[in-house]
């Protein structure tokens, strides 16, 4: 192909894409788009921390004191704030240690690539997040098994298959390692991984467990400690991944687990060796966000009050909201076209909630994904609910 044909081909694809809405405000209960205030009904800032005065001040103070950039963690970039943040994360999660990365995408890549070689075995839920799928690919592992979404019975079938491979030693003479990996909260439906069953099976088949709790931290469990805490399994999961960009509203990701494992990641993870560390304001802001949660569960309670109210009202109106166990509330719609039209009409009513269609969800499962947050007042929620009712009537979808 000629270079000009290559660029033409790219143009064909990109012109079909829709540019995202541009936000002109902070990420609070409302967003300003095109100069107009819109109810923010779809962000993952579950606790409303993006505009929290303490979080903002922590970043400002840290910039005053230390400036902006850091460096490479293994060279001259490990800052005292990084260590404080890692300590706070470990305390929050109830693990021995933690290590931070520039995103959860990076943390997933590091978590798998660093310990899994091509002769090991990875068993993954079919609906796992793209960053897990990419991390598995990056590891180069040949033995990949996918189990049906949330289905512990199917997981055991896959483990039995994996057992056959384990009998064959690797070229280095060691037995292949089995890693079971799952999202904690699945971000499209808000359902949870069956962690108690997964832990039992992992013990039976001597497998390592990894849970990506990007949508569980700050949301599930005691005081938002996450989905592992929700199931009373603290200390029973080998590798916990978290994101600092969702409930904590900053940027960054982490791996939490046993000290030996974290020491190994510190020494070996390529994402830590060859990519820059978190900046000073990001680190200070994340640390403050975690401290807020360590001090009080007020915001988590507010998030759940809002979630229960919103869902109750949606149910009363007759919407199908699936079976979520987290605040993620899918409003199921009959088709992709209706989901898109529904979202556009909501926008005219000053409510911002994006449609979720194939390939983000299977065909026939189009929806608007609503995520309430602790920053919404009852009045804000009522405003959104009223708009949903109006649009549903117009489109005759109830
Ligand atoms: C389950 C899950 N893991 C990881 C990520 C990536 O998080 P980050 O934005 O910190 O890279 C996301 C973000 O959508 C997610 O939903």
Structural commentary:
The structure is a single chain. The protein has 398 residues and is an alpha/beta fold. It folds into 2 domains: 19-46 and 297-395, Aspartate Aminotransferase, domain 1 (Alpha-Beta Complex); 53-295, Aspartate Aminotransferase, domain 2. 43% of the residues lie in helices and 14% in strands. The strands form 3 sheets. It has a 7-stranded mixed sheet with strand order 3-9-8-7-6-4-5, sandwiched between helices. It has a 3-stranded mixed sheet with strand order 1-2-11. A 3-stranded antiparallel sheet has the order 10-13-12. Helix 3 runs parallel beside helix 11 (280-295). It is globular, with a radius of gyration of 22 Å. The model has no long low-confidence stretch (mean pLDDT 96). The site of pyridoxal-5'-phosphate has 13 residues, from helix 4.
Query: Order of SSEs, N→C?
Result: HEEHHEHEHEHEHEHEEHHHHEHEEEH
Number of DSSP strand runs = 13
Number of structural units classed as domains: 2
Small molecules (ligands, ions, cofactors) in the structure: pyridoxal-5'-phosphate
Work out the helicity level: 40-55%
Gap between N and C termini: 51 Å
Query: Kindly state the mean pLDDT as a whole number?
Result: 96
Architecture of the largest domain, according to CATH? 3-Layer(aba) Sandwich
What is the overall shape?
Answer: globular
Structural class: alpha/beta
The first-level CATH class name of the largest domain? Alpha Beta
CATH topology group of the largest domain: Aspartate Aminotransferase, domain 2
Beta-strand level of the residues, as a percent range? 5-15%
Number of helices: 14
- Low confidence ranges: none
Largest sheet descriptor = 7 strands, mixed
């Amino acid at each position: 192909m000629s270079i000009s044909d290559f660029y033409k081909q790219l143009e064909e694809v990109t012109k079909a894409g829709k540019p995202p809405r541009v936000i002109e405000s902070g990420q609070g209960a409302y967003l300003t788009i095109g100069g107009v205030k819109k109810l923010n009904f779809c962000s993952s800032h579950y606790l409303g921390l993006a505009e929290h005065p303490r979080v903002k001040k922590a970043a400002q103070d840290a910039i005053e004191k230390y400036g902006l950039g850091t460096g490479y963690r293994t060279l001259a970039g490990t800052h005292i704030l990084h260590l404080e943040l890692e300590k706070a994360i470990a305390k929050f999660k109830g693990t021995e240690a933690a290590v931070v990365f520039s995103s959860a995408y990076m943390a997933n890549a590091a978590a798998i690539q660093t310990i899994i070689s091509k002769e090991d075995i990875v068993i993954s839920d079919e609906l796992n997040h793209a960053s897990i799928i990419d991390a598995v690919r990056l590891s180069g592992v040949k033995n990949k098994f996918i189990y049906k979404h949330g289905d512990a019975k199917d997981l055991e079938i896959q483990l039995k298959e994996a057992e056959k491979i384990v009998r064959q030693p690797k070229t280095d003479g060691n037995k292949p390692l089995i890693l079971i990996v799952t999202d904690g909260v699945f971000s499209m439906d808000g359902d949870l991984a069956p962690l108690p069953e997964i832990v039992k099976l992992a013990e039976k088949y001597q497998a390592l467990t990894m849970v990506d709790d990007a949508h569980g931290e700050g949301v599930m469990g005691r005081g938002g400690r996450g989905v592992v805490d929700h199931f009373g399994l603290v200390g029973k999961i080998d590798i916990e991944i978290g994101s600092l960009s969702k409930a904590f509203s900053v940027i960054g990701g982490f791996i939490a687990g046993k000290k030996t494992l974290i020491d190994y990641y510190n020494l070996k993870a390529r994402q830590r060796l060859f990519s820059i560390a978190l900046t000073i304001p990001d680190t200070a802001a994340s640390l403050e966000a975690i401290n807020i949660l360590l001090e009080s569960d007020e915001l988590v309670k507010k998030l759940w009050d809002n979630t229960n109210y919103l869902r109750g009202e949606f149910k009363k109106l007759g919407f199908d909201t699936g079976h979520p166990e987290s605040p993620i509330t899918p409003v199921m719609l009959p088709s992709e076209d209706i989901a898109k039209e529904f979202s556009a009409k909501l926008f005219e009513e000053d409510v911002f909630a994006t449609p979720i269609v194939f390939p983000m969800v299977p065909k026939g499962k189009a929806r608007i994904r609503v995520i309430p947050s602790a920053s919404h007042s009852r009045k804000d929620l009522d405003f959104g609910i009223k708009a949903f009712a109006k649009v549903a009537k117009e489109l005759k979808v109830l």
